[in-house]
Each structure stands twice: as C-alpha cells, then as structure tokens.
C-alpha cells in the first residue's frame, strides 16, 4: 500500500472579531459564563458577501504557497456551502486555476475534514492520485440565530486546507483512520433546513456526553493501532468546548498539555477547526520527530472520525 503524508497545511480566518463583550450587548449573557462554560473568548465572523467557499479558497491558497505539489484530487469538506452548485470544490478549483483534477464536496458536519482525509488517502492508494488537496471552508455564522444565547456564543468562521502526497518515506505519515456515525443521534444537531429548522440548534448536553465518551475511546483505539505506549502524542481535537477536553483529560488521565486547543480565539469552526489548530501548532513547532498526532473530529450526524499521523 502506498504511504501518504501531510506535506503542507494552510488556513484563513476573517479579520472581524466577535468578542464575548460584543455578545454581552446582543443577548443576555456574560463573558464569565461563556468563558467558564466553553473556553471561548472571541470568534471571527465573515462579512456579508464573503462565503464559505471564499474562506476555503484563501486557506487552499495558503496551503499551495507552502508546497510545490499540485493536486489531482480535491475534496472540499463543508456543511455551510453557499450554493448547491457550483459546489465548493469546483469554486476552489476555478478560483485557484487548478485543472485536470477530480473535485467534489463532502459533508460530515464537524467530522468532515477527517472524513475527507480518509477518503483522500484511500483514493490515493487505490486510484493512483499522487497529491490530494483537502479543504474545509465553513461560514457557520450564516446558520446562527444571534438572538439565541445558547448557540450564538459558540461559532466562528474559518477555512483550513491540507495537502496529502504519496511518498516513499513521508515526513508526516497518515498512518491510520477510523470513521463512524450513530444515526440514532441524527436529530441532536440540526441546521440549514427549511424555515423552523434553519438556525442551528442542538441538544448540548447529549452531544457533550457523546463527545467526551467517543474522544476517549478513539484515543485508546489510535494508541493501540499505532503502538504508542508512552506519552509522545498530541491530540488535535475538534474545537467545540474546552470542557470536553478537560473531561477527556480527567477520565483518561492525560496531561492537559497533550491537547492542542485554540478555541478561545476562534470558537467552534466546524470542519475547519482541526486544520486551524494543526496549522497553528505546526507553525509554533510544537511537535518533534517521532511524535504521534491524533486528529479527532466529532459532531452532527452524530459522526466521528479520527486519524493518526507520525511526525
Ligand atoms: N449565557 C448565560 N446563560 C446561558 C447561556 C449564555 N450564553 N446559554 C445558556 N445559558 C443558561 C441556560 O439557559 C440554562 O439556564 P437554566 O439552568 O436557568 O435553564 C443554563 O445556562 C445551563 O444551560 P445548558 O444548555 O444546560 O448549559 P451547558 O452547561 O450544557 O452548556 C453548551 C451548553 C452548548 C456550551 C454545552 O452543552 C456544549 O458545549 N455541548 C457540546 C456542544 C458540541 O460539542 N457541539 C458539537 C456540535 S457541532
């Protein structure tokens, strides 16, 4: 089987910040409540006229600037594309003059980026693509009811992109992936539907419990699969709530510094969040050769997806 590695990561966030003190003026909430219940201090919001695909294009351009590799396959993870057609991957390819490639969108809510990594890796191994660009562009703010204090505090807009390349000896090899979904929880996270189902709503407590349990079991699974029996690993989780990470750390007796988190600055950016956190940690040189990275997504569906990378 061909080996596949992550050769570059790019990201993009809009300039405009929505802080907790801004939200205090919009709904009945406080900085103290939001910070202690979610870990979020501010998020970035794309202005009217800037769409999810624009965020994905900017992140993809950032990624392409970091590698000479050009994709024969493009998978755009998104749950907030502005149009059904042209779909997001075709807009990205058109904007960046990427031709002679296969391109499609993939929606697995907040697990989308890791699902796309898994599909991309598989197609590279079975169909011979040498390079695959995986993007996540999300403008969740368009589904947020800014009168609903329970949900408007959570989300931000962002884009992320990763280049996968087939290599003899990858520097950052994608070792294993695990995908899953539990359709009995399909109605626990809802957005983007007709009229009364348009704005985001969730059963926050049920999703919270699911996320803590699933992330814990996925960490165990990845550790076993890759044979990691020491503490040379980092978890790059979907950034939904810092209390989820604290609970997993407590349950599994994992030192909190093993979790990469930037939720305080960006909130929940759905499928973009793991890419955004990976990019930031990579730029900060947080990882050393031989470390394992466990990328773990979860969310609507209910879906989950995990990938192990050896640095
Ligand atoms: N400011 C102040 N009070 C708020 C508030 C806000 N922004 N939002 C809710 N509250 C209130 C509620 O009205 C409720 O008041 P009550 O007890 O008088 O009824 C109280 O705070 C507790 O609300 P609850 O919804 O039970 O809070 P919670 O501790 O479950 O936290 C979430 C809510 C959404 C932060 C949390 O459930 C969560 O993060 N869940 C997981 C979400 C997730 O991972 N989603 C992924 C899908 S993409």
Description:
This protein has about 300 residues and is of the alpha/beta class. It has two domains: about 5-165, Thiolase/Chalcone synthase (Peroxisomal Thiolase, Chain A, domain 1); about 175-310, Peroxisomal Thiolase, Chain A, domain 1, CATH 3.40.47.10. It is about 35% helix and about 25% strand. The protein is built from ten helices and 13 strands. It has helices spanning about 20-25, 30-40, 50-65, 90-95, 110-125, 150, 205-225, 240-250, 265, 275-285; strands spanning about 5-10, 15-20, 40-45, 75, 100-105, 130-140, 160-165, 175-180, 190, 200, 235, 290-300, 305-310. The strands form four sheets. A five-stranded mixed beta sheet has the order 1-7-6-4-5, with helices on both faces. A four-stranded mixed beta sheet has the order 8-13-12-11, sandwiched between helices. It has a two-stranded antiparallel sheet with strand order 2-3. The two termini are about 20 Å apart. The model has no long low-confidence stretch (mean pLDDT about 95). The structure holds coenzyme A. Coenzyme A binds near residues 34, 37, 38, 110 and 153.
């Amino acid at each position: 089987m061909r080996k596949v590695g992550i050769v570059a990561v790019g990201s993009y966030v809009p300039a405009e910040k929505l802080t907790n003190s801004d939200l205090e003026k919009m709904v009945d909430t406080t900085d103290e409540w939001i910070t202690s219940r979610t870990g979020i201090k501010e998020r970035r919001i794309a202005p009217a006229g800037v769409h999810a695909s624009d965020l994905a294009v900017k992140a993809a351009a950032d990624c392409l600037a970091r590698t000479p590799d050009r994709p024969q396959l493009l998978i755009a993870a998104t749950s907030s594309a502005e149009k059904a057609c042209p779909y997001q991957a075709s807009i990205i390819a058109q904007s960046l003059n990427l031709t002679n490639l296969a391109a499609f969108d993939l929606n697995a809510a907040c697990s989308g980026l890791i699902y796309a990594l898994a599909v991309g890796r598989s197609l590279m191994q079975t169909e011979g693509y040498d390079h695959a660009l995986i993007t996540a562009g999300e403008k969740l703010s368009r589904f947020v009811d800014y009168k609903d204090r329970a949900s408007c505090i959570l989300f931000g807009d962002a884009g992320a992109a990763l280049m996968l390349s087939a290599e003899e000896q990858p520097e950052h090899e994608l070792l294993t992936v695990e995908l899953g979904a539990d359709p009995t929880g399909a109605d626990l996270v809802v957005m983007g539907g007709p009229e009364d189902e348009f704005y985001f709503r969730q059963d926050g407590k049920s999703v919270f419990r699911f996320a803590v349990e699933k992330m814990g079991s996925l960490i165990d699974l990845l550790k076993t699969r890759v044979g990691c029996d020491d503490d040379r690993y980092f978890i790059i989780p979907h950034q939904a709530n810092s209390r989820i990470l604290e609970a997993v750390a407590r349950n599994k007796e994992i030192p909190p510094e093993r979790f990469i988190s930037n939720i305080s600055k960006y909130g929940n950016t759905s499928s973009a969040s793991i890419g955004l956190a990976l990019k930031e940690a990579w730029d900060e040189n947080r990882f050393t050769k031989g470390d394992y990275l466990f990328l773990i997504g979860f969310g609507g569906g209910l879906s989950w997806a995990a990938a192990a990378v050896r640095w």
